[in-house]
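Newbie here. two chains, one complex. Structure please?
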Amino acid sequence: MMQGFLPIEMLQGLYALAPEVFVLCLAFLVIAADIILPLKSKRRILDIAALGLVFAMLLTYGNFYQQGAYYFYNAIIVDPFAGFFKIIILISAVFMLMMSRDYKPLEDNKIGEYTSLVVLVTLGMMLMAGASDLLMLFLSIEFVSITFFVLVGFLRKDMKSGEGAVKYFLLGAFSSAVFVYGASFLVGITGASTFPSIQKYLVINGAGPLFITGLIIMLVGFGFKIAMVPFHMWAPDAYEGAPTPVTAFLSVASKTAGVAVLVRTFIAILPENANVNLILAILAALTMTVGNLVAITQNNVKRLLAYSGIAHVGYIMMGFVAYGILGVESVLIYTLAYLFTNMGAFAFAVAIYNKTGSDDIRDYAGLSVASPALAFVFFIFLLSLAGVPPTAGFFGKLMVLYAALDAHYIWLAVIGVLNSVIALYFYARIAYYMYFAKEAKITEPLKLSVPLSIIIYSSLFMILCICILPEQFLILAVRTVKLLIGPFHAL
Amino acid sequence: MNNLYFYTILIVSLVLFLIGIYGVLTRRNAIGILMSIEIMFNSANINLVAFNKFLHLEASIGIIFPIFIITLAAAETAVGLALILSIYRKLKSVYVEKMDLLKW
């Protein structure tokens, strides 16, 4: 543990973590820009941050050429798996900043503060994706949670925002406490906190009942972060209260970072004799079913997308339960599909909110008459959420179901298919209001601003791309997963 | 003898953890819930220090980890109190059952 201080090692680590270092500098730059720029051009800060994050994406590309190297005394691992999730997080951060540009409730004088928080939370999630040490994991998860509490409650004049933030805070802090209690068993028993040391301990001594108990308690903590049933209660409230761009960010980036951490932790330190797969399978089935059933009765679009997001977590967990190369690969493809689909849907929610000032799906009536082309694009996003071909959502679901069948979880796959039928119903409800509702609430054509149309059309392109030309994405996913699983288990 | 001490400490921390969970589930006051969460964080600290003392005296992680936990718990409390204060200004109450704008 206590090696001497070696500046060369430190420099190597900083070089390997160039994207993170860059994002940190960007956050300071944003704060400086907030001081310098006059009030009128404060919205420029969002552009600066978005451009900076695009550059960080290019830097992250280097991660794909690393073979899983540990840095900072094994606290952080840089490998394609981390790179994949970092890219997803950065894309959603860029989209989120672009979405914020036209989000009206955000006041101009708060933009600098808001942007710096978003950039910092992106940094936290990037560290989460690369954490290979329980202490690092705990620190990065807390970093992300605490920043998100502030972001959710950012609209101080809005009662709902404050209430959502308090509820999110209470359950988030509770889950952190549960997580750290579980981690205390793992650290205590093995006397080490890095994954390589814990693996070494497991190989020599095996896992006792206390170790497995700790792991299951940690699973509860993770469950809160990714909004897994029965730990999902905070999600709808936080999502409805938060400013819509933050909701989009929370539902995509925070969830994918949670999934990354969950997958890495369980692949790295799950002992051979711990049979948690059945628990995970039951939780996945519950998550899908509860998410979809409750979503049926929702009228607020943010709340509806929150419950649909819970259902999507169920599908992601189904891929994770299947385990092995195919299982994790399906998780990666599903998260990629989820990213573009959800971001597109939330961009529409922002566009329509700016027009009508309402998040109610009954106020979407008449969209198909007022602007038929956009209504059709929105319809495609809904199809992708429901998992209908030819969209990315369909391909993701196909992969997940295939992985589950391959791992002989036939009952789970059946529940998954039944759930997509339920899901089709409530997504079709939105389409129903758009196309067939009698009284039109939207009468003038919807005008998309430039940032929103970039989000919507690039997401649309990616959604169709993933389903029609999946080879490239599959090759990427297989490569990523092989390097992740390779060092740990010889499959 | 040593073992007996060890298990006693583990049970104490487990009891603290359960008291914390009970508090989170039954308290109606947001500040009370926050205090219960702090108790849960402390049970993890006791666990870590006890394990370090009885199982891995040579490892320093059991001492380092609690320091981070204490620091982060303080940071979390600071943000949480700010949020509760901001909602108190409008609601004139910190009771969670009064926060009922968002419901399914």
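Moderator note: Chain A touches chain B through 46 residues (CB under 8 Å). The mean pLDDT of chain A is 90. Thread marked as resolved.
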